[in-house]
Amino acid sequence: MRVTDFFDPDGIAVIGASKTPGKLGNDAMTNIRTYDGDVFPVNPSSEGSVYGYEFVDSVHDVDADLALCCVPSPVVPEVLEECGQAGVGAAVIFAGGFAEMGGEGAAFQDEIASIADEYDITVLGPNTAGYAIPHKDLYGSFVPRIREVGTGNVGIVAQSAGVAITSSFHLTREGYGVSAMFGLGNRVNTEFADVIPALDDDPRTDAIVVHVEGTEDVDDFLAACRESDTPVVALKVGEHDIADFAQAHTAAPAQDNAVYEDGFDRPGLVTVSSTTELIDTGRVLADSPTPDGPNVGIVTAQAGPGIIATDYLKGTGAEFPDLTEETRERLDEILPGITYTENPVDTGRPMPEFGEAIDAVARDDNVDIVLVYEIYEDSLGYPVDELEALAEEVDKPICFTVAGPDHALEDERRAMEALGIPTFDTPERGAQAVAALIESVSGDE
Amino acid sequence: MRVTDFFDPDGIAVIGASKTPGKLGNDAMTNIRTYDGDVFPVNPSSEGSVYGYEFVDSVHDVDADLALCCVPSPVVPEVLEECGQAGVGAAVIFAGGFAEMGGEGAAFQDEIASIADEYDITVLGPNTAGYAIPHKDLYGSFVPRIREVGTGNVGIVAQSAGVAITSSFHLTREGYGVSAMFGLGNRVNTEFADVIPALDDDPRTDAIVVHVEGTEDVDDFLAACRESDTPVVALKVGEHDIADFAQAHTAAPAQDNAVYEDGFDRPGLVTVSSTTELIDTGRVLADSPTPDGPNVGIVTAQAGPGIIATDYLKGTGAEFPDLTEETRERLDEILPGITYTENPVDTGRPMPEFGEAIDAVARDDNVDIVLVYEIYEDSLGYPVDELEALAEEVDKPICFTVAGPDHALEDERRAMEALGIPTFDTPERGAQAVAALIESVSGDE
To answer: Are A396 and A410 members of one domain?
Structure first.
């Protein structure tokens, strides 16, 4: 299988392309327009053109090595066979109605599997919303507005394309984006174990975000994660019994989550339990230096949210070391009489010296990771200059938790993130990111 | 104590008011300008005016019944005594440096407690960022931009003003707002048990959101919650040992969380474990009808996120009833051959019939609460018309989980919320809101 075909197709056929807005074959055409290469809408019942591309009758008439199949499930085997005969090497099959339906659907899926095998076609799906590579303006998907997903350094591979999409939009909402996004669906022959190495090889991907309901190839999946030099974070759904629904969704087998959790108990791999944690962990693993250990130094301008973060972290592998004598002396100089000079350090209010306090804690030899909480004040802003110096001189993760009206702090948030300092809008999101960093360096070697 | 003095002050003295931007006494003046009544900046060292208000030398020279004390802790006792002599009935004390510091600070706090007692002054704080009542444009706080907090129907009372503020901004970011927001700080004589009944009596407050680190008056606190006709949701911090930090913050005593959790195990009261859940639960309790029971009907346009929500809910008190024969027949008519007609109902993709599917499930007698997940598509929008009919005709909570670019779905999100249908931007937030609704009707009577 050559998943890389999806990254660099040489000509794309859109089979079942349509002029009618709202139809899947039209939505797919809408999205593929930005692709920098030949696009061929294939539909024997249509004449003229769609978005300036001339309709053709058959995939035999075109020079394409990727097909986006926008046809209903009963037609898919025939279409895929034609693709194979025409030399198309990769296909995205959007339609549902295969293994997830059982009965006739399962038979259809077996049929397309054997056609794919016969002609050596890499198939994404069936039963997927497709994939997207924003930095190439390449959107092999029918999802409206998918072109609004931002470009970034987090790669997503999800069993459910719905989760891939909602996570991509969520990353975009946070000012981030994706390097590539794949919805696997029923995985006829493109599995986690195919996409994860491709993302690991992709120089634009600095963290791999995985959503899994269940796969027959657990060993291959875990091996791919283990062998990845790029850190991997996974949301394994199914803490409780959701077997019927998951089977009916992407034909996912019922499995004990422990298999995945045990497999992820090693450096570089992290498991989470919500989509928010999934994207936040992706962000922090992509942008932060690898911490040396679990020792967290907390600096807050308002203790209340800092206590919430501390409380959360105490339930994880985090440690709260004493600060060195040197740091405490420096803090005493910077902030005479501040409310709390132990770790956590609390200044009680944002103040001009806040950046220096972060600096003191970040340079403390006992501290591996810094977590900051500060409500935004216009007259002070965020200590971007101090953080810039720290980011250059100190190779430790700093997570910055913000609060205030979005529009007020947006610019400085983005400035911090450009320095590799991820930001979070609630205390527990900041704390969860720190916990993920710690998990990423713990576990069996 | 008359907490109501904070709601309707007749003249406000700002003691320690300043012309210098960035000073606390200037920030407080900035915020109080929108108050529709007399404002008196009090500062014997200042001349002229600030924001058009003439400085006066002493609180004796003014006719005010609320004082915002912007002076450092050592001066507070003297200032409070003057307030008492001048007949000021209520005061907000911003400064820290009292009981949370121990030693001399604790002595200062004892002193102001006895002055407050002698002159019968209702004191908010010390060690607080104050309070806000947006619908009255009344901001007794030094927090910059607090005037951007939206007006809404959620009342907040937080031990940490920092948590009150970050939660208020978060609610605003979600398109909601607060009816009133109080940061208690060190609670010299204004306690949870004073503010909660005031919010319960406030016709603009439909849910009360509480943040508590620990209070000596647990019994009064729990009694106030129990006696409230308005639903109450609490975030009790301190699942782990954070006693030192909390003591140093708001002089909170170390306490076993079980006391609070047991006390909240009754209808109308809900506990949560994050600030996001806190505000989401506030929203859903404020806007939704009370459900008849724990039976959840789920309708999804993309199964993956729906499975995540289902998985989460299976770990709570939620039940997933079979749909009635009538509903299933109706679903078969509306959506022939849809992917999954059991509960959860999954349509596989947004479609024009999606609103009808929600309608069928919401009208099912076996269903008490409806949870919906749908990625936004421009050509379909969200089924606002069908939801409007449902909101009028069916007295059941509907929680709607959205996905897509914010700006695309913003209008329809707000339209649904205007119907009393709260919306959420991740599957687990929607699921948590449903779990909170179920918790609000369970527990001991």
So the answer is: yes
